[in-house]
Amino acid sequence: xxxxxxxxxxxxxxxxxxxxxxxxxxxxxxxxxxxxxxxxxxxxxxxxxxxxxxxxxxxxxxxxxxxxxxxxxxxxxxxxxxxxxxxxxxxxxxxxxxxxxxxxxxxxxxxxxxxxxxxxxxxxxxxxxxxxxxxxxxxxxxxxxxxxxxxxxxxxxxxxxxxxxxxxxxxxxxxxxxxxxxxxxxxxxxxxxxxxxxxxxxxxxxxxxxxxxxxxxxxxxxxxxxxxxxxxxxxxxxxxxxxxxxxxxxxxxxxxxxxxxxxxxxxxxxxxxxxxxxxxxxxxxxxxxxxxxxxxxxxxxxxxxxxxxxxxxxxxxxxxxxxxxxxxxxxxxxxxxxxxxxxxxxxxxxxxxxxxxxxxxxxxxxxxxxxxxxxxxxxxxxxxx
Length: 385
Fold this sequence. Notes:
Helix content is 46%, strand content 13%. It is of the alpha+beta class and 385 residues long. The protein has 4 domains: 6-13 and 99-175, no CATH class; 18-92, no CATH class; 181-260; 274-384, no CATH class. Strands 1-3-2 form a 3-stranded antiparallel β-sheet. A 3-stranded antiparallel β-sheet has the order 8-4-9. The radius of gyration is 25 Å and the shape is globular.
């Protein structure tokens, strides 16, 4: 790393991983005699299901049942029933998984001549919750503030940005957590909000804001998934400069919006005008060849694209700037005739039936292709030719 370079390190942290350690230990111990990943997954998930069933069967209010954390129980249930296998293997069955406290990570970094700058997600750095502590208990030093914040929020994961000690000595403002308007001016933001009569809530369902932020939340909703910058808001609402910066900073710190240093545009697919980004083709080809990929398809910002089957990925490659939407629809119809895929729909009573009516198949093929185009567009997968 160069003297003025930066390093990104993601890692599991205590105290949040304390209860997860118990789950991991149970999974590793129960599958220790298995040699394949599939066998380890099956054995450990079976044990977790038995573990959850046993605890749930204990009498409510009993000392034995109260001895188990509801958070730990919920996590065990999610691993057994919901989480993807590749995530479980990586997070709970890796040979090495050694969480640490944030302050310990900082000390280890210092021993390597590195200095902690900020958390990439911003929230652990700026939302420490220490204002809720008694005045005489609030720490002043920034590492202590963040460590107490981890205790108060039970944080289990961090994504720290480091730099060299030499570089850190020349950027004291950054080390003090200073964030200026000119810093915000360099960024682009995107996100969506649920707006009600009483409050505004981000799509993570994590934070609720006063309705005084409705105007800026509405702007994000109207332009999503395209990104916006401070210049956009300042031009449209010149009389609200302070409110703009206050809202953007608050949304950033609470993780309610995403931010990047490049403008993001969700381009629609138009033959001879746009196409799948050429440097994405090999990436998509991987998913087109794998019925059970070891990774999930994501955007350049590591946000999930959504469900994408191998056949979906094959059709996605047809958005090459040459094929029309009708061409792709025709290819889908031909594929359906092979009998390798069927479209289904959910009836009002909740049951699923295979679409067999020819007119409905025609309409469904078109809807399918348009839906795939929308998914790729929202993931910023198209570029101008």
